[in-house]
Amino acid sequence: MKIAILDDYQDAVRGLRCFKLLKPYDVEVINQTYRTVDELVSAIEDTEVLVLIRERTKIDGSLLSQLPKLKLISQTGKISNHLDLVACTRSKVLVAEGLGSPIAPSELCWALVMAASRHIPVYAQNLINGEWQQSGSLGLGRTLHGLTFGIWGYGKIGRRVAQYAKAFGMHVLVWGSEGSRKTAVSHGFEAAPDRAHFFRQADVLSLHLRLNAATKGCVTQDDLASMKADSLLVNMSRAGLVEENALYEELKSVPSKMAAIDVFDNEPVRDASDPLLSLPNVLCTPHLGYVEKNSYERYFQIAFENVLNYLEGNPSNIANSELLP
Question: 156-167 and 103-117 are packed helices; what angle lies between their axes, rounded to 10 degrees?
């Protein structure tokens, strides 16, 4: 049985405690990301089990049609838009789903808020370059106490981030579905009366939404233009939530506004190809939301257990269970 683990950028999987679960099997850990379907197929054409690291590789009918030996895909974390479950079912490929956790992305969100608000990366880099207390065009940073923290999407991550903001003495303002706004109010936070008020009032605004047909491009150029001149937008959910090019154009035209971004339209970003990387008022990180040791151990433990259960004839957590006998 040939098993392949895709897109392990940091070659970290082999160092996990749970990796020993696959020791009896023929496992290939692939560290690079292939740019074309043909290149990927060439690398994994004999693979029978694929283990995916979150959403780094797109799984669709075109790819599956060229992998006739593939029997199982084991997903770390939850299935999302990167995987066409209908196409997998049509190709008779079982898909085993994992579990997610809000802890790591919530903590990263707050790290981005703090780092961007106090310009920590720029100050640190300039210190290495011999410049004392210099942040370039960004000027002085600011504290968070007393500011309004806007949260769009009051799910597991949004709720944790709201508590962080509360601990820092911020006023929390929530926007989203009617149900999420009611829940936020029941937790002691304020729900914005409308979308326009939400964008106008937030000093810091963080997005915590799933990307789907309803949310794609939901943050528009007009929304960004209506935000305060010294506002900070944080997006560590999905790049597609923001209208294409809108964030770059707004931050370029209003340098006093800032953004902290962990997600991009085309990942991985190579050779500074994304225009946001060129702006001094944008803090960019390489999609680190779940990329830390505890999350990896949790995600891969479940993914590997799903593989073992399949190989032992007892498939677990199968999303397309109609394929099971």
Answer: 40
| Cβ 235 vs Cβ 207: under 8 Å | yes
Give the Cα separation of 240 and 212 in Å (integer). Answer: 9
Main-chain phi, psi angles of 93, to 5 degrees: -105, 120
Burial class, 175, CB count within 10 angstroms (exposed 0-12 / middle 13-18 / buried 19+) = buried
The pTM (predicted TM-score) of the whole model is 0.94
CA distance to 86, 96, 174, per residue, from 93 (Å)? 10, 10, 40
* Residue matched to tokens 């190579």: 270
Helix (H) or strand (E) holding 300: helix 293-311
Q: Taking residues 223-233, what's their average pLDDT?
A: 98
Q: First-to-last CA distance in the chain? A: 21
Q: How far is CA 169 from the centre of its chain?
A: 27
| Element containing residue 151 per DSSP (H, E) | strand 148-152
Mean pLDDT value across the chain? 97
Facing residues of 282 across strands?
Answer: 259
Query: Which tokens is 232 given?
Result: 């900070």
Tokens of 265: 């339209």
What lies within 8 Å, CB to CB, of 47 at 6+ separation is 2, 3, 4, 28, 67, 69, 70
Q: What are phi and psi of 39, to 5 degrees?
A: -65, -40
Q: Are 235 and 263 contacting, i.e. CB atoms less than 8 angstroms apart?
A: yes
Least Cα distance to 305 among 20, 56, 12 occurs for 20
The answer to whether the peptide bond before residue 268 is cis (omega within 30 degrees of 0) is yes
> How long is the chain?
325
CA separation for the pair 49, 72 (Å, rounded): 5
Confidence band, pLDDT 50/70/90 cuts, at residue 36: very high
